[in-house]
Every structure is written in C-alpha cells, then in structure tokens.
Amino acid sequence: MRRILAGLLTLGLPLSVVSPALAQQSTLEKIGQSGVLTIGTRTASPPFAFVNKQNEWVGFSIDLVEQGVKPAIERKLGKPIKLEKKESTPPTRIPLLSSNAVDLIAGTMTDTRTRRESVDFSLTFFVTGAQFLVKKGSPIKSIDSIAGKRVAAQQGSTNARIIRERVPTAKLQEFPDQPAAFQAQVDAYTNDGIQLYGLKAKAPKPDDWVVVGDFFSYEPYGMAMRKNDSDFRHAVNVGLMELIESGKYFELYDKWFGPKSETPYPLTAENKRFLIMQVVPK
Amino acid sequence: MNYQFNWSVLWSGQSGGWLLRGLGTTLALSGLAWLVAVALGIVSGAMRTVPWKPLRVVATFYVEFFRNVPLLVWMFFWYFGVPPLLPLAIREWLFDHGAEFWAGMFALGVYHGARMSEVIRSGIQSIPKTQFEAAVAIGLTTFQAYRLVIVPIALRLIVPPATSESLNLLKNSSVALTISVAELTFQTRQIETYTARAIEALTAGTVIYLGLCVGIATIMAHVERRFAIPGLIARGG
Prior knowledge:
heterodimer; A: 282 residues; alpha/beta; D-Maltodextrin-Binding Protein, domain 2; 2 domains; 5-stranded mixed beta sheet; 3-stranded parallel beta sheet; 11 helices; 15 strands; globular; B: 237 residues; mainly alpha; MetI-like fold; 10 helices
C-alpha cells in the first residue's frame, strides 16, 4: 500500500510543478506571441452565444469580443490577431482559464465574490436575474410557489444554489446541459431570465411557454480571465468601455435583444445608466 | 499568475458531506447496475452458446443492440424516452421516487450487461467442448449442464476481464450526472459551483475513483485465487 501511495505522489508531483511554469507569461504576451485570442464561450445559450440555424457560432457576447475587446487588444499589441472560440460550460470554464486553454470567458458567466477568489472579471456587460420557464397555465408563479415541485436547473449555476438555500423543499434536478434540463419532465425550469427567453424562442412551439416570477437573484454578467493580470484586464475593459461610449454596444443590444430580435428584452433606463456609469474617463 | 491551490475547500463547509453522499450514490448506482449487468450477462452469454438457434438470435440481438449505442444515448433514452410511454400513475410515482436514479441504473446495467455477456461467452467458449459432452453423457440436461458445469467453470475463467468490465461500469456511472443523478462526479461539480475550485474538487473525485477501483481490483484478485480450480488454469506465479 505504501508503495502505491509513493507512486501516486510521484505522478502528482510533476503536475503541480508544470502548471506554474506555464503560467509565467502574461496573457498579452501569450496573445502577442501566438497571434490568437482564445475565448471560452457557449454553444447553446442564445442569444449570448449559440450555434444558429446556418451553423454559425454567434451571439451578443461573441459580438462584444469581436467588435470591442479584440480591436482594443490589437491596438495594445500593435498587430492584428485572430479570434478562436472554444466551448466552455459552467463546470469547465474556470479550469479552462487556469490551464491556459482559453484567455477569456465570454458567455453568460455571473460575476460573484466567490468566483473572484479564483478569477478576475471585466466590467459588467449585462444584467439579469433568475426566473422560471413554465408551461402555459402552470400554477407556478414565482419562487414562492415551488415548494414540493420538481424544478430543473443548470448545474453549476448560481440559480440552483439560491433555490437550494431558499426553498429546500423544492425537488431540484440539476442538468449539465440547458437543452436536457428543458426537456426534463419537471414543473419548472429556472435560469437567468434572459436565457429563458432565448430557450422559449428556440422551442418548437414558443407560445406554449411563459417566463414567470420576479428576479429572485441578481446576475451581473462579466467576462472572466486569469487572476492578477491587470494589463490584460485593462485592455478588455477598455474594449467594452469604448463599445458603450461610442454607442456601438446599444446597436448590438438592439440587434440581439431589440423588438425585432428573436428574444426581445428591453434595456431598462436603470440598466442603461448603470452601463454608462461604468465607463471611466479617458 | 500561479494557480493557488486551496485544498481546505474539500473539508470546509458542506463539501465533505457532499463527497460522501456522492460516493454513496455512486456505490448504490454501480452496485445495483452491476447485479443487473451480471445477471443479464450470464443469461445472454450462455444463450449465445447453446445449441438452439432462436435463443442465440435473441441474445445476439440484445448484445449488438445495446453495446453498439453510446451509453449517453441510453441514459437519455431511459430518462427522457421511457417515462412518457408509461401510464400516468406509474410515471408520477416514479418521479416521486428517484426516476433519475432508476433510469441511470437501468441504462448502466443493461448496457454493461451486453458487454459482460461477451466476456462470459468468451469464457464459455474457451472450455473444451468435451466438458459439455461429458456432462450430457452422464445424464444432465442442457440446462443442468450449463448451470452445474459450464457456467461455474466459465465464471472462474473470466475473473480478470470481468473485473475490468466492472471497473468500467463503476467509472461509467458518472455519465448519470447528465440526467441529474447526484453521484460522485456531480458532487465534485457542486463543490466547484460553491467554491469556484474545480481543480481541487476534480482531484478529490479522481482520488476517490482511483481508491475504489484499486480496492475492487484487489478484492477480485483474492476472489480469483480463492476460487481457482487447481490444475484447470496454467498460471504464471
């Protein structure tokens, strides 16, 4: 037994030595050298990041990176770079960052204090909160009416955690994939409100579904990156600030969430103010 | 930018309890599925070798159908596909009594039963035909010959590959998290949700799986020695 343990330790040792060695380089240096900005994003979280009917990987978060963050990094480095997208999910996104597989998470990641202990976040680029998606005519109206009901949530999301803490009697089922959770035979599916509208729009019969309840959580979305790399973080933030300042952000917002989009989600005056106030002077 | 390991997340807060509960679910899920797999494996493995074609056809169909479709698909099939076919009352009862767990257990058991069947068939076919003929010659029926002679010998021969297959079953039980079964891998992800410490949580999960598998392999090695028939198998050391 002792020999087995010793063997395991020698196997584990190189792993812990190698990872810091790889991480010596700053993210901007890494991008400058490879000429590639790699982002981790989603494939099934419309309208932030998803594969559309034409089989293109698109979305609001991806547009923000392409039109704001990428140009800002290019200016900083003084040369053009390529954008590469990789799939990331709630359980994989922080490991993808710490292993250097991606440089930036740009999807639907909520900025939280716990997560800030492991990664750094850009400024907030979207604000939403958790609600429920139910069949039309369902008795579920809000978080107050889910006791004893079967509720599906996405694993690794902040919503599941809040339900477990606030309504422990709800029968919570957690699925790694949003589509699986949506198809589960449950009484309600919870996620961030805007994502529920996205799912509803993509459902075969969107009119059969309704999004109900007040926000029972506050979900500020940010882009996540490796900790303690303030030059890179600054470049990302500058990109986002310029988008907001120039009004480009609001054009993109209109493209994905405007009245003519698949998922209309009006920008409240309060949220608009909040976004603008995050832009610091030049 | 070095990754700062923080192993204390594994025992602070609820993490320890979650890991234990996950371990319990993994063991229950794998244990029950293993019983299903072994039962199906023995029956269908034996059926594939009997001198009566219809039985062989049925068993071959079972094996090829179930082992050639990915386990993930079977998970979705048993969870999303089967319940709507059941009468409403049974469905409601199931959903109140851990439908996810039972769907996962069936998916795992039936899938691995098909794979186990091949292991058992190869064991049976490695027994010289004369054994069967001798059994029949002393007056046993085919069923008795299988039950009293062929299968007991075959089971002893296949301990090493059957162990591998059982370990695969244990590790494949993690696929059940896709249908919301809160087993070990699910709980490591849960810890990640609460602490944002994925590497520590995954390492804990890995060490537990490793420990379980090494433990089972050790037990099976003892079983193999204990039940070996002297003179039947040429062994090296």
